[in-house]
Design a protein that fits this description.
EC number (chains A, B): 4.1.3.38
InterPro entries (chains A, B): Aminotrans_IV, Aminotransferase-like, BCAT-like_C, BCAT-like_N, Class-IV_PLP-Dep_Aminotrnsfr
Pfam families (chains A, B): Aminotran_4
GO molecular function (chains A, B): 4-amino-4-deoxychorismate lyase activity
CATH architecture of the largest domain in chain A: Alpha-Beta Barrel
Distance between the termini of chain A: 22 Å
CATH class of the largest domain in chain A: Alpha Beta
Largest sheet of chain A: 8 strands, mixed
Family (chains A, B): Belongs to the class-IV pyridoxal-phosphate-dependent aminotransferase family.
Helix content of chain A: 25-40%
Structural class of chain A: alpha+beta
Number of strands of chain A: 14
CATH superfamily of the largest domain in chain A: D-amino Acid Aminotransferase, subunit A, domain 2
Oligomer: homodimer
Amino acid sequence: MTVLVFLDPAHDDGRIVDASQPQLMATDLGATRGDGLFESLLAVDGAPRKLEAHLSRLAASAAALELTVPDAGAWRRAISTGLREFTAAEPDRSSAVVKLLATRGVEGADQATAWVQVNPVPAATLAQREAGLRVLFLERGYDSTVAQRAPWLLMGAKTLSYAVNMAAVRHAKAHGADDVIFTSSDGKVLEGPTSTVLLAHDRDGQKTLMTPQLESGILAGTSQSALFAAAKEQGWELGYGPLEPHHLHEADAVWLISSIRLLAPVISLDGQELRTSATLTAELTELVDRFV
Amino acid sequence: MTVLVFLDPAHDDGRIVDASQPQLMATDLGATRGDGLFESLLAVDGAPRKLEAHLSRLAASAAALELTVPDAGAWRRAISTGLREFTAAEPDRSSAVVKLLATRGVEGADQATAWVQVNPVPAATLAQREAGLRVLFLERGYDSTVAQRAPWLLMGAKTLSYAVNMAAVRHAKAHGADDVIFTSSDGKVLEGPTSTVLLAHDRDGQKTLMTPQLESGILAGTSQSALFAAAKEQGWELGYGPLEPHHLHEADAVWLISSIRLLAPVISLDGQELRTSATLTAELTELVDRFV
C-alpha cells in the first residue's frame, strides 16, 4: 500500500490523504516543469534512518532551487504520521521506503506543495542487492568542473527533473545491464543515476575505500557518507577521487550504494567482469547495517 | 481561467475536469521524476496554430523518451474540446495558451497520463514582446556534439524535466535580465530555456536570417521553422549555425522566438546593448502573423 501525508500549516502532524485518489493539481510546477526536490530514505521498524542527513540535503536542494519548503520539524512530524499509518496497515513489514517531495506549487500561487509518501521496499530492489549489478558507463555530458562555475545547472541538488536519469537506466536495461555509472566529458567517474560509486582496495591488510570527489558535480551521498564514517572507525583509509574508469577495473571490489538498495556489488562494467569480494562486501554490509 | 481536458480512451473527445480540484495522482512519474513531455502552442480565435508541427514534435519527444502516448487524433479532439470550453467561458479573449502534457503515468501502471490545459496568454509575456529582452549568456554545460553520441541525455526532446531551464531564468532575473541564451561548453550559441535564437543581417538589401544548427542538441523550434519557410518565400537567405556569441554582437538584430511570446527582440546581451531594427522586426512580425 501507499500512504500519503501532505504537509499543511493547518495540520501540525501533516494531513493524511487517500492515496487512491488524485491529490495534486494538474498545474503544479512539479508536474509541469519537474520544478522541485525529493529525498528517498529507508525506515526500519517504523523509524526513519539517517533522517538528519536527508533533511539536511533536502535543505541544500531547496537552497539551490531557491525554493521555500516546510521546516525540518514539519517534515519529521509528517514522516512520523506516515510511518505510523503504514505500520498499522502493514504490521508484518519491517522496512519501508519514505519519500519526501516538495514542488514549487501551483503556477502563480507562490506556495510549495510538500508531501511524504511511504511504500513497501520493492522486491526487485532487494533482488539486485543480492544478485549484484551489471553496469554500463554512460556519458553525462558535463565536464567535472562545471558545477563550480554554473550553479544554475543545479548539479548538487536532488531535483524532480530526473528524466535523464530514468532514460539512462532504460538505456542500460535495453543493453542487457541493470544500472549505470555516469562519466564526465573529461573522462571522470561521477555517480549512478540514483546511487553513489564506491571502490575498495585491500593491500596487505590495509583497506582503502574510495568515492568520486563531490566537486565533480555529483550528489552528496548520505549512505556513502555514513559508511565512510563507520569504516574510518574500523581503520579503513578513505579516498575521494578523481576516479577514472580504469580505477574501477583495477579495484578489489566496486559497489553502488544508496539509501534503499543499500550496498550492491557491481559484477560487470560494460560487459567486462569485475573483481568482487564476498569478504569486503560482508564487512561493509555489517557497517551499513549499523546505520540502517 | 484554466480549462483541463484529460485524454481518456473512454471519452472520445477527452474528459473535461474541474481545474480547481486535484486531478493528478501524487505517485504520477510526471510529478515524482519529471518523466514526461509537453508542448505549448498558441490558439487564435479558437484555432490552434502550427498544430501539426507541435504534434509531430510531441511524437518525436515521445520516441526519445520511449513513451507511448495517445495518437494525434486524440490530441486534436481534446484540444478542440478544451478550446470550445475556453471560448465559452472567456468569449472576449482572442488568444489562448494550449499546453499538451503527457507523463509516464502512475508508477507501475504502465499507462501514460495525458492532458490538455488551456489558459489566457499571460500579460507579462505580451509585455516582453513589446519591450524587448535583456539577455544573459549562460553555459548549458554540454558540448555541442554530445547529443549525437549520448541519446540518453534526451537533448532534442521537450521533457517535463525543466528545473534547469527555470533555474537559469531565475538566475537571469536575479541579475537584472529577462531571459537567457545558453551556450555550449565549446563556446557555441544554443537556445533559450523556452525559445529559439534568431539573428539577421541586411547587407545591401540582401537579408539573411540565421539560427543555431539543430545538431548542437537544441530543440527544433516550430516557430523558427515556420518563419524560415515564410522568409525564404520573401527572398531571405537562410543560415544554420554554428553561431558564437560574437555573431550575435555583430548582427543587425537578434530575437528569441517561441510559440506564445512569438518574436521578441533582444535589446542587450550580458549588459551590452545590441543593435535592433524596428524595420526588420516589423517585417518578420508580419511573416509570423501569417502562421499565428
